[in-house]
Amino acid sequence: xxQTHDIEVRVRYAETDRMGLLHHANYVVYFEQARTELLRAxxxxxxxxxxxxxxxxxxxxxxxxxxxxxxxxVVTIRTTVDKVTHAKIVHKYEVFRDGLLLAxxxxxxxxxxxxxRPQALPPVLKRDNFA
Length: 131
Hints:
Blueprint: E1 4-10, H1 25-41, H2 46-51, E2 55-65, E3 74-84, E4 88-97, E5 100-112
Antiparallel strand pairs: 1-3, 2-5, 3-4, 4-5
């Protein structure tokens, strides 16, 4: 399984503020899209995981903004699996435009069942799969 995966996103007009800059909240949306595509690149989807009774909930999220992205920029979001425990997975994110670091972040997701009770990560997300 992949440990790092890159996607490209073009900043859409609706995602910007009055100054034409990518609104800060949309970085979080991009992070979610990037980690979803990391899982898909590994041959598994969030839908399949949820259908198997495993749900990932964000329990911690951090973003550091370095430089702004603007309308119509193509940005690369690099997602890295940083840490995997019995029931949690930590992702790190870097957002680049033409190799220039614009933002970085980190999220911690915990695995729960349909009732919201903690449970072990599904086998596909175990640390050994991220070699």
